[in-house]
Amino acid sequence: MAGHGAEEHPHGADRLCGAGDRVYSRAVRRGRVPRRDAEPVPCLLELALLHPDPDDMDWLVPTSPQEVMTRLLRGMYDEVSASQRRVGSAVAAVEWYAGLGRQVRPDTSVAEGPAIRVLDGLARIQAAMDEATQACTTEVLTVQPGGIRREAELSEGLHRALALRGRGVRMRDLYTHVARHGQGLLTYLELMGDAVEARTLDEVIDRLILFDRTVAFIPANTDRTMALELRHPAIVEYLVTVFERLWRLAIPLTAPLPDTGIEGISHREQSIAALLAEGHQDAVIAERLGISVRTCRAHIARLSETLGAASRTQLGVRIAQAGLDGPPRSGAAVKVPGRGSPSVR
User: Fold this and answer.
1) Residues in Cβ contact with 292 at an 8 Å cutoff, skipping those fewer than 6 apart
2) pTM to 2 decimals?
3) pLDDT tens, 209-244?
4) For residue 309, which phi and psi values (nearest 5 degrees)?
5) Which residue among 36, 184, 228, 268 has the highest number of C-beta atoms inside a 10 angstrom radius?
6) How far apart are CA 250 and CA 204, in angstroms?
7) Share of the chain above pLDDT 70, in %
8) What count of other Cβ atoms lies within 10 Å of the Cβ of residue 209?
9) Looking at the predicted structure, is the pLDDT value of residue 322 above 70?
10) DSSP per-residue string spanning 242-264
11) Taking all residues of the chain, what is their mean pLDDT, rounded to a whole number?
């Protein structure tokens, strides 16, 4: 009963629930209430606002309001006293730690700050990025997921990019293939000239920015209002290795995407087919390729039409038959199911 009451009435005597207020008020006015009236509000017994009538156990009598008030005030006084003691202890601890801090000589090995720092809020992220930009002297590596870059996103970091270019810093950027269709990115790259080299992939990892291979920034939540600033050499070296391997696989932005070797199927549809074969849902595929779910489904519809599939199940079979469930087969002649002749790359 006690457990049930605590779950149903999670409050104290200072803030009764509506049902408890009505039953207790009636008990005070009448001097007692039947036990059955209090069954829906076990909080009154748990808080000792009602207790059994010693003359008749089927009835409950109230604790006087004056006694309840005294109990509440005593509890408040005890809480304030405990808080004052905790504040006193905290102040004493702060003074003790401050005294220790004055005795410690600075450690030059950690002069650069903590190995991992959480940046909470866009203002702190921007300030840390500006600081890293000012300290950068040789190279910036970035991974930019999400498809077509909005002009606002490009403008946001333009001042940093121009400052880097002015100091002769080289920049390499990785995007998804979809980013090729954004005029804003093309304008940005034209403005930056030889200072920036860009390549694209079907899909990339989440956002990553590396300065001089000594400090990296990655998102710390989904809406990117928090970030991690990483200075641990092992972590930064690992991220540089990931970038370099993706870079070798990527296609220069100035080069055309390779032909799929299958008539009527674009490079993007080939990527979608491979992800469908892995069992991914439309929303996941869209996110990984940097396109909208609506666009993704339009490509899937064209795939179905091209491969002659009447259902998703049949589409999976057709994808496997056409060899679209894995990496492109360079130089191979591929026969599209449902069509009479193969198309050769």
Assistant:
1) 286
2) 0.55
3) 999 999 999 998 888 889 999 999 999 999 999 999
4) -100, 135
5) 268
6) 10
7) 80
8) 21
9) yes
10) HHHHHHHHSEETTSPPPP-SSTT
11) 79
Tokens of 77: 């006084």
Q: Helices 293-307 and 312-321 sit at what angle, rounded to 10 degrees? A: 70
Pairing of strands 196-201, 170-176: parallel
**Using one digit for the tens of pLDDT, what is the confidence trace for 137-181?**
999 999 988 766 666 666 666 778 888 998 999 999 998 888 887
Scanning the structure block, which residue is given the tokens 């694209």? 200
Cβ burial, residue 141 (10 Å; 0-12/13-18/19+): buried
**Burial per residue of 74-109, b for 16 or more beta-carbon CB atoms within 10 angstroms, e otherwise:** eeeeeeeeeeeeeeeeeeeeeeeeeeeeeeeeeeee
Q: Report which secondary-structure segment, H or E, holds 313.
A: helix 312-321
Do 260 and 267 meet the contact criterion of CB atoms below 8 Å apart?
yes
Residues with Cβ within 8 Å of 212's Cβ and at least 6 positions away in sequence, in order, are: 135, 136, 137, 138, 139, 140
Q: Round to whole Å and give the CA distance between 312 and 289.
A: 20
The Cα–Cα gap between 111 and 324 comes to 53
